[in-house]
Amino acid sequence: MPLRSGGACAVLLLAAAGNARAAAQKPDEGPGDLFTGISVPANATDLYGAEASFRLGGWNSTWGEVKLLELVADGTPVKAGDKVARFEFPGRDALRWVNEKIQKTKADANQAKISGDQTLGALVMEKRRKELEARLAGIEVEKERAVSRKQGDLYRIARKVADFEVDAITKRIGAARRSKLAEDTYQDESVKKHEALLARYGYYERKFQMVAPHDGIVRHAFSPRERRKVQKGDSIRAGMKVMSVAKDATLAVKFFVPEHRIAEISEGKEVTVTTAASAEAHRAVVKQIDFFPQELGFLTENHNLPNGREKAFAVTAEFVEAPAGLPAGAEVRVNGRPR
Q: Which one of 54, 66, 172, 220 counts the least CB within 10 Å of its CB?
């Protein structure tokens, strides 16, 4: 069919060129089609950074990051309960404060007990004096026949007063003993309460040490901020993944799929993985997709990403055959639409 004008011919030529470029660059070959991820142990328990706050009685401390002082070497076999890492504990100043509180509470308790003993002792002595007065009054009453009636009445009144005072002081002693028992119990409980602060301090301090939850192999986590594995001397945020204790050598990849592309991924689907060391593609099968999307900065533990607020799903895929020499914590690229 003959062309009616040169303009129409140019339009057709441009459209043909565009189709040719689109055919030459297939969707699975564009860098924007690849998902970023890291290699992780397939069967492992993750361990995370210590808490960022410390609350103990009237003592409160908060910090952003803590320094990683000790770290077992990557690949080290460990037994359950072995120490694998230790963080700097910023709450050490609280130990002196706790010990001072305990010493003051004990001193107050001892002083209260001494004061109670003195009060009770004084009442007992007063009772003995009143009992002596009552006995003397009784002796005087026995002289009633040898004295005038008026004097005898005075002796009997003195005897009744003395007996009343003995009875009154006896009741005061009983009340003082009950009060002292209650005060001693209160002071003992106060000492126990403050001594419990010392045990709680130890609990917090132990939380700044990591121990292996089971037998396995230590695998250091990838630090997105440093773009390398976590290492001794790093500043660790609370909740940041520090390592995994792998139960076996099986490797998987954890990669992040933008929310608008999650339809491309499903459990059981095969994807291909390439590493920084080689362009060779390795097969992997999707085993798990997180239930809901989260911000990419949170998933990668790197809030400085330019697209850190973008929502994405975390996806785990196990290698059919892992690349030789690939360690856990290495950056990888995942193609969700392999040829």
A: 172
Contact 266, 256 (CB under 8 A): no
Alpha carbon distances (Å) from 330 to 3, 36, 76, 223: 58, 11, 17, 10
In a domain, 194, yes or no: yes
CA distance 332 to 37: 5
Which amino acid appears at position 188 of this protein? D
Pairing assessment for the beta strands 34-41 and 251-258 based on DSSP bridges: antiparallel
Cα separation, 4 vs 123, in Å, equals: 128
Q: Which structural domain range is residue 148 located in?
A: 94-206
CA 235 – CA 88 distance, rounded (Å): 10
Residue type, 36: T
Q: Is 66 a domain residue?
A: yes
Output the domain CATH number for residue 62. 2.40.50.100
- pLDDT digits 0-9 by tens, 103-125: 888 888 888 888 888 888 888 88
Please indicate, yes or no, if residue 11 is contained in any of the structural domains. no
The predicted model scores a pTM of: 0.59
Same domain for 292 and 159: no
Are residue 216 and residue 199 in the same domain, yes or no? no
Domain count, the chain: 3
What's the pLDDT tens digit per position in 233-264? 998 888 888 989 998 888 899 999 999 999 99
128: helix, coil or strand? helix
In sequence order, the 6+-apart residues with CB closer than 8 A to the CB of 135 are: none
